[in-house]
Amino acid sequence: MDLRMRQTSVLNIWPAFTDVAIAMLLIFLFFLFIQFIANSKLILKIRMEKKQETIQEAFAKTFAKEIANGTIAIERDGNLQRFSFSDRILFHTAEAELQPLGQTTLTAVGRLLQRYKTDEKGQPLYQSVQINGHTDNIPIETEQFPSNWELSSARAIAVLRLFVDEIGIDARTLIATGYGEYHPVATNWTKVGRAKNRRIEIVLVYSEMEGGK
């Protein structure tokens, strides 16, 4: 009788042991999956940053003087790469028509965007281009521009049209937006601050998910 009970007890242990083993295996597979996802994201992030560095080096070489004197600035923010251009090298005061220097500068920018739109394997270096117009907070009330909304929008569209009409950039990859005075990067209480706020930003958008293709 005792022998039979001991045998029954031993047999009853195996289902519990099997359940524990399966649970441990599932936990191991779960952590393995999490590690795989983390490594994949890291690889895509590294690839994206390499793409950003390629374009940044090209811009830094082409616009070394402008970057040094502060009329052009470059900033990276995750999957965004922002190139900021002071309005004084692009437009006359309160106007949205590109001045000759602005046309020359942005033509060079457009050619760089065209040249570096794909890598050596034909894969896109960036997914889209945002063109953002910004002003200071000094009101403008003209027949053409009732407010800074209209001025900043018209300036962004002027850049977009140059990229499309003169450079041949695919219009489907471009977005033009006017922000008026509502996204300042400096104080509007000083002349220097207001000058920094009057700008055109060309923002390259990179997709981490696309980066691994």
Structure description:
This protein is an alpha+beta fold and 213 residues long. The protein has a single domain, classed as 2-Layer Sandwich (60s Ribosomal Protein L30, Chain: A), CATH 3.30.1330. Helices cover 54% and strands 15% of the residues. It contains six helices and five strands, in the order ααββαβαβαβα. The chain has helices at 2-62, 64-69, 100-115, 148-167, 191-197, 208-211; strands at residues 72-77, 80-86, 128-134, 174-178, 199-205. The chain has a five-stranded mixed beta sheet. Helix 3 crosses helix 4 (148-167). The model is unreliable at 209-213 (pLDDT under 50).
Topology, please?
Elements: H1 2-62, H2 64-69, E1 72-77, E2 80-86, H3 100-115, E3 128-134, H4 148-167, E4 174-178, H5 191-197, E5 199-205, H6 208-211
In a nutshell, what does this entry contain?
It is built from six helices and five strands. It is of the alpha+beta class and 213 residues long.
